[in-house]
């Protein structure tokens, strides 16, 4: 009996810590939901309390002011093109680097790795200048190309490690059977690195979807605003409409929440197994 008491006490303490941590993580969501349903005056003078009257018309106002449908479409296509481009270009490039041990390919690999060492803000000004010279400013496709270029180094670094871990005998047998390099990659190698591919898709999708600075510097046209840019309109130098700002946050995360609920098994598998080589 005495030996079980410390275990029970330890389990109770552990559960209490988990409850406190859960409450800490959920508190920002509570603030977001309650603030989005308040009037401007109530959101200012009673930020932590429950709304006295539900202001559901905040969402209607936000939808119209943000032009939410247009902003969502821009964010969706920008994220889709960027993520698919990073996966395709990085995967094919990594396959060529991993298969060949020549000095040129080794140097190319280290050039990609050096891209991880350079801080993004150091390359920001030259990149904006380059995009301006190439007339890619105010272009969602130009922004997608910039994201692809920025995301390739990390993706190549991961892909090369995973492809090199694939037994050479598998690829050599496929080549002996007459498999072309193109078919070798898509039929054999690509399915074997699907775990790291799903991980990269998740990480890059969250990065592109939530990015604010890069679209702010490259998209001045209102019709091309992404969701983070559209949300910025609720902040001013002298006044901030917190109830509308939080309503916009809630609308913005709903697509990601729905995607997670429908694809949570694939997302969890991709993140949990992405760090384990096939």
TrEMBL record:
Keyword Membrane attributed: yes
Coiled coil: none
Annotated TM spans: 12-33, 76-98, 105-124, 144-163, 184-209, 242-263
Protein family per UniProt: Belongs to the binding-protein-dependent transport system permease family.
GO biological process, one term: transmembrane transport
Name listed for the protein in its UniProt record: Carbohydrate ABC transporter permease
Membrane topology: Multi-pass membrane protein
InterPro entries according to UniProt: MetI-like, MetI-like_sf
Record localization: Cell membrane
Alphabetized UniProt keyword annotations: Cell membrane, Membrane, Transmembrane, Transmembrane helix, Transport
Start and end residues of each ABC transmembrane type-1 domain: 72-263
Gene3D superfamilies, per the entry: MetI-like
Pfam families, per the entry: BPD_transp_1
Cellular component terms per the entry's GO annotation: plasma membrane
Species, as recorded: Paenibacillus thalictri
Chief location bin: membrane
Xref: PANTHER family: ABC TRANSPORTER PERMEASE PROTEIN MG189-RELATED, ABC TRANSPORTER PERMEASE PROTEIN MG189-RELATED-RELATED
Lineage of producing organism: Bacteria, Bacillati, Bacillota, Bacilli, Bacillales
């Amino acid at each position: 009996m005495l030996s079980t008491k410390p275990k029970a006490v330890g389990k109770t303490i552990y559960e209490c810590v988990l409850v406190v941590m859960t409450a800490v993580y959920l508190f920002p969501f509570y603030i977001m939901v309650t603030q989005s349903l308040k009037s401007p005056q109530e959101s200012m003078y009673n930020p932590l309390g429950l709304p006295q009257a539900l202001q559901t018309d905040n969402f209607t106002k936000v939808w119209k002011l943000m032009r939410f449908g247009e902003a969502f479409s821009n964010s969706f296509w920008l994220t889709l093109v960027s993520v698919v481009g990073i996966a395709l270009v990085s995967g094919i490039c990594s396959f060529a680097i991993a298969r060949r041990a020549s000095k040129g390919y080794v140097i190319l690999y280290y050039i990609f790795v050096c891209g991880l060492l350079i801080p993004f803000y150091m390359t920001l000004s030259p990149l904006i200048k380059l995009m301006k010279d190439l007339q890619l400013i105010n272009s969602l496709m130009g922004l997608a190309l910039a994201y692809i270029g920025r995301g390739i180094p990390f993706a190549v670094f991961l892909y090369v490690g995973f492809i090199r871990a694939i037994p050479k005998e598998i690829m050599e047998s496929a080549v002996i059977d007459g498999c072309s390099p193109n078919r070798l990659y898509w039929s054999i190698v690509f399915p074997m690195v699907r775990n790291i591919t799903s991980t990269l898709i998740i990480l890059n999708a969250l990065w592109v979807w939530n990015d604010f600075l890069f679209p702010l510097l490259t998209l001045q046209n209102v019709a091309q605003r992404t969701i983070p840019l559209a949300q910025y309109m609720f902040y001013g130098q002298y006044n901030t409409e917190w109830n509308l700002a939080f309503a916009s946050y809630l609308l913005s995360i709903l697509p990601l929440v729905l995607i997670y609920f429908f694809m949570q098994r694939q997302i969890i598998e991709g993140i949990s197994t992405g760090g384990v080589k096939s």
